[in-house]
Write a structure and sequence with these properties.
It is a single chain. This protein has 288 residues and is an alpha/beta fold. It folds into three domains: 80 residues, Winged helix-like DNA-binding domain superfamily/Winged helix DNA-binding domain (Arc Repressor Mutant, subunit A), CATH 1.10.10; 95 residues, D-Maltodextrin-Binding Protein, domain 2; 88 residues, 3-Layer(aba) Sandwich (D-Maltodextrin-Binding Protein, domain 2). Strands 4-3-5-12-6 form a five-stranded mixed beta sheet. The chain has a five-stranded mixed beta sheet with strand order 9-8-10-7-11. Strands 1-2 form a two-stranded antiparallel ribbon. Strand 1 and strand 2 form a beta hairpin. Helix 1 packs across helix 3 and helix 5 crosses helix 10. The termini are far apart. 28% of the residues are buried.
């Protein structure tokens, strides 16, 4: 059937009734009478042309068709509600939807959000944390923070920070292993990120690859968490670990080193004319 003929206004009631499988309980939750809820379900079923519930005496049970509709309708309504909230935020100020790597969001951006809000109180940030490289224009993003060499199609890119890395560990592990790291000890407990493998660090220092790999991570945030727990020595972005080094939770075991092709960039669609993007860029450049 065509979507315009579907009584969408009855879907919230259907979702609650489907979750509860009890029309009276659903009626109490939506502040309607039992008869009104029953009528909405019947009208929805009539519009669809098939039943969503099996009637058993005075009770109901969701059938296969009902389960399929619930699986589609519930996330769709949740997405719609989130969209309405974002639209309201944009209407109240100047909205800025950005895609950010989870590690950058957690370890650098979140602690500095109050400073951004104080500097730009009229900008409402809508932050989507994901490892995926999003199609910004297609998915409605105003900008993204990416790691790379600055060469992406269909976007403008501005470098905001270099991608230098540094080996870190807890103070206890650092005391035990710092000298051994510089000497190339085979027993070194190493934690590795797939973007910054240890072999590149050893090669840059003119050392033979050594150590005992304990774990490989695809997310720098998980790598840092493992290092904080004292699991091993991690090779991480200096920018991400800045606050932990300052607080003494982690210790640097050697000088920072800057590999090629893994700098931080702010990118935005070429056709994007949201002035808030340039304000975010200026703030990032000032902070970084």
């Amino acid at each position: 059937m065509k979507l315009e003929r579907l009584p969408l206004q009855f879907l919230p009631t259907f979702i609650i009734a489907a979750r509860l499988e009890n029309l009276r309980a659903a009626a109490q939750q939506v502040h309607l009478t039992h008869g009104a809820v029953s009528q909405q379900i019947r009208q929805l079923e009539q519009a669809l042309g098939y039943r969503l519930f099996e009637r058993r005496g005075r009770g109901v049970r969701l059938n296969g068709a009902g389960r399929e509709l619930l699986a589609a309708a519930e996330p769709a309504l949740q997405a719609l509600e989130q969209g309405v909230l974002r639209a309201r935020a944009v209407d109240a100020g100047q909205g800025l939807r950005i895609s950010v790597l989870p590690s950058f969001a957690h370890y650098w951006l979140l602690p500095r959000l109050p400073a951004f809000q104080a500097a730009h109180p009229d900008i409402v940030l809508d932050i989507d944390a994901s490892l995926a490289v999003q199609d910004l224009a297609h998915h409605g993003f105003d900008a993204a923070i990416r790691i790379g060499a600055g060469e992406w199609r269909g976007v403008q890119a501005q470098r905001i920070a270099d991608g230098e890395v540094i080996p870190v560990a807890t103070p206890e592990l650092a005391q035990r292993w710092q000298t051994a790291l510089l000497q190339g000890d085979e027993a070194l407990p190493l934690l590795e990120h797939d973007v910054t493998p240890w072999r590149t660090w050893f090669r840059a220092r003119g050392m033979a690859e050594c150590g005992r790999p304990l774990a490989l991570f695809n997310d720098a945030g998980l790598l840092l968490r493992a290092a904080e727990q004292g699991f091993g020595i991690a090779l991480v972005k200096s920018l991400l670990v800045r606050d932990m080094l300052a607080a003494g939770r982690l210790v640097a075991l050697a000088d920072a080193w800057r590999p090629e092709g893994i700098d931080y960039y702010l990118v935005w669609p070429q056709a994007n004319d949201n002035p808030a993007v340039q304000r975010l860029l200026a703030w990032l450049q000032q902070q970084l």
